């Protein structure tokens, strides 16, 4: 009877506990959605950031990667690198022009259209993707403009066709620099969705099937955890100084620091800080494809300004240096692609400040040169003394409590006041002055 009870108990456990548990399968963890954020010009550090984000997402089995984008444009070469990475990514890429009011201008248009899924926030816009900024377009010949325009138009058509978007409307963003609102872009089949925020976007694309360039089909699973992938500290710093205006101000501050060090040797800090700022500015301008001729003119301006401290030119070198600096500044981004420029107001304000600063330094140097020497034997010139003996032509005078051998071209009686006119070795040249006289050159 006892064994029968054990057998019945075992059967009950087998039916209601063991068998149900054995049929359960481990639920795999949901794949994360990686989110990158770009708010600023498309510069080389952005390409590195996107590349590292794609690698990290692939390594951790992300379902897709979302790039929140707001940019006025950037470098054509950097844009090509980013688009190539997105097109060849094994993980689906979603580009979301956000937040509300954001702009995917110029380079941003190419990046948005290259994504597997393109979306825009309310009030955002896309387009104006002409490869040369309008204000600098005159710097290029007609043939150069046509080549750049036709190449960019063919490229954006190719991207749009392969992503199933309207190539004609995409081409208009390049040929005619046309911009589209979020609603217009959706109706023109340039983007796939309008979304109020990131969560709204992820809900709308969850379960969506996308096709990669290699033909593979992927179903988006965007209900998993969201993992934000920020720039590294080094990338944040490089991105911050990659704005043309900030790079220009860094270079200008560096020039001022070096000039100050040359005018006041031994100050140390202005020279060190100026050197670092100048190198950072020149490096950043180099990565932004600034014109070499413009950079050389700016450097020439620095040399001329520094030379003013060693060559008496009555300000001619300083004027030439400021002129060279301004001309070089205006040429830095002449003919630059994708609209990277330096604000002309920043250029002229910096030039004015630099001219005022150098003028102040020159005035201080001139004042110091005119100031009477007050140390050493030269400091005796102009001092008043008393003859302690007759001077005819030699004698002794008392100056500031010290006795000096004196020589005069005229007879000076003991007790008369004299003024020192020159010093030769240990002998002072003196002249008689009237009672109540004062120092010469006082």
From TrEMBL:
Q: Name one GO cellular component term.
A: membrane
Q: Name one GO biological process term.
A: proteolysis
Q: Which CDD domains match?
A: Clp_protease_NfeD_1 (cd07020)
Gene3D superfamilies named in the record: 2-enoyl-CoA Hydratase, Chain A, domain 1, Nucleic acid-binding proteins
Per the database record, which ranges form the NfeD integral membrane domain?
A: 245-363
Domain NfeD1b N-terminal stretches: 33-200
* Gene Ontology MF annotations: peptidase activity
- Protease recorded as keyword: yes
Q: Which domain of life is it from?
A: Bacteria
Question: What is one Pfam family matched by this protein?
Answer: NfeD
The regions listed as transmembrane in this protein's record are 237-260, 292-311, 316-334, 346-366
Primary subcellular site in the record, as a coarse category: membrane
Record domain NfeD-like C-terminal: where: 377-432
Matching SUPFAM superfamilies, A to Z? ClpP/crotonase, NfeD domain-like
Protein's cellular compartments: Membrane
Q: How does it sit in the membrane?
A: Multi-pass membrane protein
Task: List the keywords (alphabetical).
Answer: Hydrolase, Membrane, Protease, Transmembrane, Transmembrane helix
Under the heading InterPro entries, the entry gives:
ClpP/crotonase-like_dom_sf, Membrane_assoc_protease, NA-bd_OB-fold, NfeD-like_C, NfeD1b_N, NfeD_membrane
Q: What is this protein called?
A: Membrane-bound serine protease (ClpP class)
Q: What is the species listed in this Swiss-Prot or TrEMBL entry?
A: Thermoanaerobacter siderophilus SR4
């Amino acid at each position: 009877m006892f064994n029968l009870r054990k057998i019945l108990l075992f059967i009950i456990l087998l039916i209601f506990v063991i068998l149900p548990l054995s049929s359960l399968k481990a639920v795999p963890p949901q794949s994360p959605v990686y989110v990158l954020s770009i708010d600023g010009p498309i510069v080389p550090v952005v390409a590195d950031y996107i590349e590292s984000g794609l690698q990290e997402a692939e390594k951790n089995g992300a379902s897709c990667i979302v790039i929140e984008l707001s940019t006025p444009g950037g470098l054509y070469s950097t844009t090509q690198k980013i688009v190539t990475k997105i097109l060849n990514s094994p993980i689906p890429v979603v580009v979301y022009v956000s937040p509300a009011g954001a702009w995917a201008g110029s380079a941003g248009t190419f990046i948005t259209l290259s994504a597997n899924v393109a979306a825009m926030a309310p009030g955002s816009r896309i387009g104006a993707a002409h490869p040369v900024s309008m204000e600098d377009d005159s710097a290029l010949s007609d043939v150069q403009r046509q080549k750049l325009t036709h190449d960019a138009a063919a490229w954006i058509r190719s991207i749009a066709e392969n992503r199933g978007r309207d190539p004609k409307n995409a081409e208009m963003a390049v040929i005619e620099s046309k911009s589209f609102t979020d609603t217009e872009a959706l109706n023109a089949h340039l983007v796939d969705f309008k979304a109020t925020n990131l969560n709204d976007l992820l809900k709308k694309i969850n379960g969506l099937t996308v096709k990669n360039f290699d033909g593979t089909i992927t179903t988006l699973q965007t209900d998993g955890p969201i993992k934000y992938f920020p720039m590294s500290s080094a990338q944040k710093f490089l991105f911050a100084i990659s704005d043309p205006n900030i790079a220009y101000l860094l270079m200008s501050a560096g020039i001022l620091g070096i000039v100050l060090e040359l005018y006041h040797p031994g100050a140390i800090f202005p020279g060190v800080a100026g050197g670092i700022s100048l190198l950072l500015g020149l490096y950043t301008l180099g990565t932004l494809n600034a014109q070499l001729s413009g950079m050389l003119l700016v450097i020439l301006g620095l040399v001329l300004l520094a030379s003013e401290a060693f060559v008496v030119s009555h300000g001619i070198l300083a004027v030439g240096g400021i002129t060279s600096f301004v001309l070089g500044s205006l040429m830095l981004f002449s003919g630059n692609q994708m609209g990277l420029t330096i604000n002309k107001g920043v250029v002229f304000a910096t030039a004015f400040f630099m001219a005022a600063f150098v003028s102040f330094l020159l005035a201080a140097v001139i004042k110091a040169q005119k100031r009477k020497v007050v140390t050493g034997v030269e400091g005796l010139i102009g001092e008043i003394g008393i003859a302690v003996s007759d001077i005819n032509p030699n004698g002794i005078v008392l100056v500031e409590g010290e006795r000096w051998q004196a020589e005069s071209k005229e007879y000076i009686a003991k007790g008369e006041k004299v003024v020192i006119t020159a010093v030769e070795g240990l002998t002072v040249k003196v002249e008689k002055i009237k009672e109540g006289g004062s120092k010469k050159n006082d």
